[in-house]
Amino acid sequence: MATLADIERVVESYCVRWMIEVFFRTLKSGCRVESRRFETLDRMLNCVVVYLIVTWRTLFVCRLARELPHVSCEVVFDQSEWKPIFPFQEGTPPPEAAPTLREMVYPVSRLGGYVNRARGGEPGPQTVWRGLKRLHDIAQCWIIFGPGAKTKEQLLV
């Protein structure tokens, strides 16, 4: 006969198993790790290690935005990542203070193709992953060409 503790243990195990499934689905479909072809095992392992970090960050952003939506986005994103979102997507200057994590995840996921059809639905790992990929390029442009960019003369000094 099952006790309440047994039932709780099964539910907790299933929740962990589900996150493992989501992790590997993100690794396989987002990073397309299975379609990569390498000449040596070392090259493949190096690629998998990088993709594991990308997958972890993607799921970390998704889960943290759901669990702690009101914390500052700077727990995950630096200024070169959150500031360019506003001019890029909204056509407005960035705010003085960092937005909340939830306020940041929606524009990032929109970069990845997220459309909020469910009104209140949360972005999933796939759109967040694609958005983070585009955000990386946007952040690099912000660093090089944005308001705080160094001039040619400053770089030569």
What do these coordinates show?
The longest helix has 27 residues, at 4-30. Helix content is 64%, strand content 0%. It is mostly helical. The chain starts with a helix and ends with a helix. It has one domain (4-149): Transferase Inhibitor Protein From Tn5, Chain (Transferase Inhibitor Protein From Tn5, Chain A, domain2, Orthogonal Bundle), CATH 1.10.740.
In short:
64% of the residues lie in helices and 0% in strands. The protein is an all-alpha fold and 157 residues long.
Draw up the topology in text:
Blueprint: H1 4-30, H2 41-67, H3 79-82, H4 85-90, H5 101-111, H6 125-145, H7 152-156
Helix pairs in contact: 1-2, 1-6, 2-6, 5-6
Helix content: 55-70%
Q: Mean of the pLDDT scores? A: 85
Number of domains: 1
State the distance separating the first and last CA atoms: 76 Å
Search tags:
157 residues; mainly alpha; Transferase Inhibitor Protein From Tn5, Chain A, domain2; globular
